[in-house]
Design goal:
The protein has 229 residues and is mainly β. It has one helix and 16 strands. The strands form two sheets. Strands 2, 3, 4, 5, 7, 12, 13, 14 and 16 form a nine-stranded mixed sheet that branches. A seven-stranded antiparallel sheet has the order 1-6-15-8-9-10-11. A hairpin with a 7-residue loop joins β4 and β5 (59-61).
Length: 229
């Protein structure tokens, strides 16, 4: 619950600090505890992407995760989020495993919500594994139109068990992945995963149709992240 203090609880969240180009050819500089990029305001977590040339880089933003603080194996993980608009925005609510020793994508990835600004109000859910991932064009994914995703809050959730993964928005399921029981290359989702929240700028997908230089700043707003087991 982001309703106390001016920044996320250090007992629950870590900051991911990275330069532009770190992944997916993204343009943002992920900053460390910089209030302009990440803060609590009016009971909401604000992740703000800016075109401000901070530290010599054109764009700045923030990314936080529960890695090392909290992780889960199975459960319902949900967040109430308002996504930003504008070409070049790429917000995400997703999960990665604590143990990535096999590397990506073999370690697994669960994307509960992604949104790209050039396709406003269309949200995506995706799971990646060694057998199913975007690099080989075999990722397991689905998308759904969410009227007002950029104008108001909606609840994005994953329900994850040993046998299946379901993703929903506002209670309506639109993505399912079933465990085929063929081994780790198909189902690496039987270990602890942590939560990640970020607003990327540009990149292979977010910037596929360019980045509007006049749209900034843009905000991803998060009312809460809740986990049920």
């Amino acid at each position: 619950e982001f309703n106390v203090g001016s920044a996320p609880d250090d007992a629950k969240w870590n900051y991911e600090v990275q330069r532009p180009g770190w992944v997916n050819n993204e343009l943002q500089n992920y900053t460390n505890r910089r209030r302009e990029n990440l803060r609590i305001e009016d009971g909401k977590l604000v992740i703000e992407g800016r075109k401000d040339w901070f530290d010599g880089h054109e764009y700045s933003s923030a990314r936080i995760k529960t890695h090392g603080k909290a992780s889960w194996k199975y459960g319902r993980i949900e967040a109430r989020i308002q996504v930003p608009w504008g070409w070049g925005t790429w917000p995400a609510f997703w999960m990665m495993p604590d143990n990535c020793s096999r590397g990506w994508p073999a370690c697994g990835e669960m994307d509960i919500m992604e949104h790209v600004g050039y396709d406003a109000n269309q949200v995506h859910a995706t799971c990646h594994s060694a057998a199913y991932n975007w690099r080989i064009g075999e990722q397991r994914t689905a998308h759904t139109f969410v009227p007002g995703a950029v104008d108001g809050f909606h609840t994005y959730a994953i329900e994850w068990t040993a046998d299946r993964i379901d993703v929903s928005v506002d209670g309506a399921r639109y993505f399912t992945l079933v465990n085929e029981h063929r081994g780790d290359d198909w189902w690496p989702f039987d270990k602890n995963f942590h939560v990640i929240l970020n607003l990327a700028i540009g990149g292979d997908w977010g910037g596929a149709r360019g980045v509007d230089p006049n749209t900034w700043p843009q905000r991803m707003l998060v009312d809460y992240v809740r986990v049920y087991q």
